[in-house]
Amino acid sequence: MRVAVFVDGFNLYYRGLKGTAFKWLDLGAFSRHFLREDEALVSIKYFTADVSPRSGDPDAPARQQAYLRALRTVPCLSIHKGRFLPKTKIRPLVSDPGCFVAIHDTEEKGSDVNLAAHLVHDAHRDLFDTAIIVSQDTDLCEPLRIVNHDIGKTVGVIWLEASLPGKRYRQVSNFIKHAHPSILRVCQFPDPVIGRGGLKISKPAGWL
User: Fold this and answer.
1) Largest CB tally within 10 Å, which of 52, 55, 107, 134?
2) Residue 110 structural domain
């Protein structure tokens, strides 16, 4: 049985990895952890966008690029990018709701749409028998339903938090598995990762 994995990079980070020591996650090892003996991993598609320096965190782009270089060493993995849009927003202060301030903000655009498009397109092209989705974004429920109920593919979800999966996800998927911290711990890249030509790709400082 052919298995394709679709990873929402920001959803994975903010729901499963942020604040942990497991950010140096080997998505090849992580994906294979959830396969049965009769299944073969045929593709991993990772959806993200290039981050920009945030206030107080100018090294965020360098950390992300190091991780993307490590991911490019994983066989059958491809990276698909959306984009960040800078915006100015007006928001009230918590301490004084009648006082409004202008803030700089960024909005990530494209990752969930790109994931949904690739998922449905690859299902129509019969590129997999089972799709595994690494995301808790409920906007993906409808494409999951189409692939499962209309196209007839098996669909599984990797749940990233300790909470119970929502009803909508249970209705559109054949199985849901939890990404427990014990799984994340054993699916880390080595440090350093050895890239093309022997290039050493080191884990970013602070990702202990």
Assistant:
1) 134
2) 2-201
Assign residue 169 the CATH number of its domain: 3.40.50.1010
Tell me whether residue 49 is in a domain. yes
Report which of 197, 31, 9 is spatially closest to residue 111, judged by C-alpha positions: 9
CA distance linking residue 184 with residue 176, whole number of Å:
16
- List Cβ<8 Å contacts ≥24 apart for 76-80: 76/28, 76/41, 76/42, 76/43, 76/44, 77/27, 77/28, 77/43, 77/44, 77/45, 77/46, 78/43, 78/44, 78/45, 78/46, 79/46, 79/48, 80/45, 80/46, 80/47, 80/48, 80/114, 80/115, 80/118
Domain annotation covers residue 207: no
Q: What are the beta bridge partners of residue 103?
A: 89
Cα-based distances in Å from 21 to 3, 183, 186 = 28, 12, 12
DSSP for residue 138:
G
Cα(52)–Cα(84) distance, rounded to whole angstroms?
8
- Report yes or no on 206 lying in a domain: no
Using one digit for the tens of pLDDT, what is the confidence trace for 163-207?
A: 888 888 899 999 999 999 999 999 999 999 999 889 999 999 888
Into how many domains does the chain fold? Answer: 1
70 part of a folded domain: yes
| Preceding omega of 97 cis (within 30 degrees of 0) | no
Chain segment 66-77, per-residue pLDDT in tens: 999 999 999 999
Percent of the chain topping pLDDT 70: 87
